[in-house]
Amino acid sequence: MDTWYSNTYTNKDLLYHASLHGRTLLSRNVAFKKQLSVDVLIIEHENPGEQLRQVFNEFNIRRDVKPFTRCMGCNGDLHAVTKELVYWQLPENTRLYYDEFWQCHHCRKIYWKGPHYQRMLVSLRQFGFLKDD
């Protein structure tokens, strides 16, 4: 299972791509309820955690969750890389304090387990997407 996202498409473009690729369109736009050409899930909540909960419950995908394996920018697969390979692309403090890195196969964005990672773990546990270690 994967996702596809673009914030540059019109509603017509979104419907076309959902139909073409057999995808379910997720939106907060209730006007999409009237569409019969594609499956649509209207997201009911404004809170991102509750939005995730709704999607996970609707599609019964909680067991399929594999956090930190896809790029947040382009949804590409992440793979481990050595610090030496990405050293010159890292912010100075990151070079000093971190040793494990992952890079997107597609867009080449680099990830590491910094403070943001810890905050994401807390959120994932809070909404029941990860169990305590």
Helices and strands, with pairings:
Layout: H1 11-21, E1 25-27, E2 40-42, H2 48-59, E3 78-81, H3 83-86, H4 92-97, E4 101-104, E5 110-111, H5 115-126
- What best-fitting shape do the alpha-carbon axes yield? globular
Task: Kindly report how far apart the N and C termini lie.
Answer: 25 Å
Determine the mean pLDDT. 89
Percent helix among the residues? 25-40%
Strand content: 5-15%
Helices and strands, in N-to-C order? HEEHEHHEEH
Oligomer classification? single chain
Please count the beta strands (DSSP E, at least 2 residues each).
5
Over all CA atoms, what is the radius of gyration?
18 Å
* Widest beta sheet: strand line-up: 3-4-5
**Total number of helices:** 5
Low-confidence stretches: none
What would you call the structural class?
A: alpha+beta
For the sheet with most strands, the description reads: 3 strands, antiparallel
Structure description:
This protein is of the alpha+beta class. It has 5 helices and 5 strands; from the N terminus they run H-E-E-H-E-H-H-E-E-H. Strand 4 and strand 5 form a beta hairpin. The longest helix has 12 residues. The model has no long low-confidence stretch (mean pLDDT 89).
Q: Could you list some keywords that capture this structure?
A:
single chain, 133 residues, alpha+beta, 3-stranded antiparallel β-sheet, globular
Question: Would you kindly provide a brief summary of this structure?
Answer:
The chain is an alpha+beta fold. It is 34% helix and 12% strand.
